[in-house]
């Protein structure tokens, strides 16, 4: 075959292959649905690939900005990874898009509390919404404590524990209430009860760490925060608390 003809044949083959490949990629893009993007994100999260999960969650929201499920998934991701501002924005949008209260309000309440807006939490989570939910009752209790309304806080925590005995978040809330009443022994006892009944919750170990650190028991506090990180390696607050203690102990490395 003459050299020029061979070159033209090779070029044509390359171009044809590129067109076929491009068509295939384009077809894949067209078949992606919001549901498939959310499913991909879930698989990436299970594998521990948070960057890829976030990309797919953002793609899902970009594809269907009025899809409450996509907003809920993205907001929950942000909340779990410590981006409170973005979490509140996405979860509030999910709430506006009529995602069921019992699914969106727990995360929205935590994010809103994290932004220092307890009055907004009480507006979002009404007594009617909280009366059948230990999560929501506890969040109302946390909001009341932030507003220095101890009696209503205790009432809300008691309601939560009546709905869900041994619930770690509510026991931590009761411990914080006890501390506000200067009952430090009671607070310690409640936190240890929370740990005993919720050994797989990083939050109860965070509470134990904070209590021990406040008592000057820094090594024990570090151990508690280490356990929180064992349960959730991406727990931003646990990393920060450990670093703070280690700085105080001059463990700069």
Descriptive overview:
The protein has 253 residues and is mostly helical. The chain folds into 3 domains: 37-99, Serine Threonine Protein Phosphatase 5, Tetratricopeptide repeat, CATH 1.25.40; 114-198, Alpha Horseshoe (Serine Threonine Protein Phosphatase 5, Tetratricopeptide repeat); 199-253, Alpha Horseshoe (Serine Threonine Protein Phosphatase 5, Tetratricopeptide repeat), CATH 1.25.40. It is built from 15 helices and no strands. Helix 3 (50-63) runs antiparallel to helix 4 (68-80), helix 9 (134-146) packs parallel to helix 11 and helix 10 packs antiparallel against helix 11 (168-180). The N and C termini lie far apart (69 Å).
For the biggest sheet, the summary is:
none
- Assign an overall shape: globular
Q: How confident overall, as mean pLDDT?
A: 89
CATH class of the largest domain: Mainly Alpha
Tally of separate domains = 3
What is the CATH H-level superfamily of the largest domain?
Answer: Tetratricopeptide repeat domain
Task: Give a brief description.
The chain has 253 residues and is mostly helical. The protein has helices at 3-31, 34-47, 50-63, 68-80, 84-96, 101-114, 118-124, 127-130, 134-146, 150-163, 168-180, 184-197, 202-214, 218-231, 236-248.
């Amino acid at each position: 075959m003459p050299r020029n003809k061979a070159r033209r044949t090779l070029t044509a083959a390359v171009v044809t292959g590129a067109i076929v490949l491009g068509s295939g990629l384009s077809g894949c893009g067209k078949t992606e649905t919001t549901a498939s993007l959310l499913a991909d994100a879930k698989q990436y999260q299970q594998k521990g690939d948070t960057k890829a999960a976030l990309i797919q969650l953002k793609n899902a929201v970009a594809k269907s900005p009025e899809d409450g499920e996509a907003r809920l998934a993205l907001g929950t991701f942000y909340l779990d990874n410590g981006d409170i501002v973005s979490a509140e924005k996405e979860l509030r949008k999910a709430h506006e898009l009529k995602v069921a209260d019992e699914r969106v309000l727990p995360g929205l309440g935590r994010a809103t509390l994290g932004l220092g807006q307890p009055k907004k939490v009480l507006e979002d989570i009404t007594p009617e919404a909280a009366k059948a939910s230990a999560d929501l009752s506890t969040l109302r209790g946390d909001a009341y404590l932030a507003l220095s309304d101890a009696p209503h806080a205790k009432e809300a925590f008691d309601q939560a524990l009546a709905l869900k005995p041994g619930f770690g978040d509510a026991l931590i809330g009761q411990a914080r209430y006890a501390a506000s009443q200067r009952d430090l022994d009671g607070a310690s006892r409640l936190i240890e009860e929370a740990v005993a009944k919720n050994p797989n919750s990083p939050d109860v170990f965070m509470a134990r760490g904070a209590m021990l650190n406040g008592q000057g028991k820094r090594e024990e506090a570090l151990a508690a925060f280490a356990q929180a990180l064992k349960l959730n390696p991406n727990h931003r607050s646990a990393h920060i608390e450990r670093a703070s203690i280690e700085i105080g102990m001059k463990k700069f490395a």
